[in-house]
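In response to a reviewer's request, we include the raw inputs and outputs for one of the modeled complexes. The two entities were modeled together in a single run.
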Amino acid sequence: MPGDAFQDLIARAVTDAELRRQALDGPPPVWEDLGIDPLDGESLRSIDRHRLEIFSRAILSNRFGRIAESLPRTTLLLGGRAPELFEEFCRSHPPENKIHREGLAFATFLNRSLDDRPEPWYLPDVLAYEAHLLDLRFHFDGDYGAGEAVADPQELLADDGPLDRLVPRKLRHHRLLELGCDIEALLPILDQGVPPAVVEPETCFLLAHIEPRGTCGRLVLSSPLVGLYLAVDGEAAAAALPGNTAAWLGAPELANEAEFRTSCLAALGELASRRVVALERG
Amino acid sequence: MTVDELPFLGVGLAYRFEIREEILANSDRFDFLELITDHYIDMPPHRQEEARELAGLFPLVIHGVDLSIGTHRGVQREYLAKVRQVREWSSALWASDHLCMTQAHGRNISQLTPISFDPRTVEAVRRNVETVREVVDCPFLLENISYYFQVPPCSMTEAEFLREVFTRCDCWLLLDLTNVYNNARNNGYDAFDFLDHIPLDRVVQLHLAGGEEEGGILLDTHSRPIHPEVFELLRYSAGRMPRLKGAIIERDQAIPPTPELLDEMDRIREILAAEWAPPHRSATTSQLSWL
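The model returned the following structure tokens for the whole complex.
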């Protein structure tokens, strides 16, 4: 009597092309290998095959649309290869019930599938950027840190007095990406729907962060800023950051220069205003 | 609030983020909006704010896709608790989902998948609706879907199945007239006759849309203008829906310029004004000048 198990079989048959082919085209003994009850197998075969295929294609098309929506620039760069890669993905991954989960699963699959010489060469960078953004936006807890106490950085950094008692701490909703191209220049071009003819290799540190309203912010970091960002470890006081940053840059003499110190503290204020770090009195 | 206490909301649109600005710019033209429940479940926090903001501007109802009311193994209470939360954020007057399954044995299908038209499935739906009613504290509607194949065993027609479900279950009918049209075309029966055999007195809400044809099969893609035949089905049946509280146009792809959507809404208003008589004049119906 078809019932619970048959609903399971329907769900598998419409989302798994290989199982569908084997269950519908193979001889009945194959059902045992597939874990299908013979009565359920007979019931499945009684369904109009043409319509079952149309329905299954609609599921694939729906999934493809979700991926294109969640990873639009990656999909653009894949171009004509997208459908083939996507079908391969669907063979091993059942559908997800949320667009972003489908996008992230495809990103993981694509990372494994891309060979050593991807085409175009900057595709992994664009994929990394889109996947990290997707992950950041949907890996929220509560309110993207909007409720976290973040003191006014300008006020706290205004005078030198409290800097040795002020401890910067990284907030959660951001990520530092090291990319091989100038993503900031590339994104608006891709958003016009046509990949650029030439993209020059260039190391780019991008700080992506999510604002409390869910919008994405981007900040390209220079080397000193990367050093400063890495120096924020939740333990070092603000007063120590210029020295730690200079050490990361391998230029300890910079730590004693007033201009460098001023720049570091201004940059710390910028990171705090973007809610990448919080400044707390120790 | 019971269904009979609900106000008549009028004619509205299925809200989509892509046309948020157009909707807000023409807010006086939309009598109410329908939010997709799942767009607010397990989503970033600003979605909650959005639902609250929209609730301050429009009457809202919520419409889900992931409940899987036809799954024999039962619905997920955890999901229902989230539906309840979305209802609270949106102050939705009612909640709805589809008479189908979208998952089985933990496997997502991510598509509205047909269920067997048989007594055992009616009983499964009845049990599941009972669970919904325990958690979600507002009127609950189920929508007839477009089905592209029949799931055995089918000991009933679709009309018989709907009659059984809406007689035995504590829920109301969200009648998708486009799905009626699609199913009639795809399965070779008469849509008007179908409407004569389903419980129109249980209809609380209507859906209208237009779709594509593939391989000789009409698909429910919400990507085209409403088929003229669907307006005829509305004209034919509207007078027999005493509990009707509102009609929604669904458009998910190839969304046209707003004036085209507004024209379609006006056409629905014209038909309802001519064919549908409210059971009584309420404060809300009096505010709708077209009625």
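As requested, we also summarize the result in words. The beta strands of chain A are 166-170, 174-179, 204-210, 216-221, 277-281. The two ends of chain A are 69 Å apart (CA to CA).
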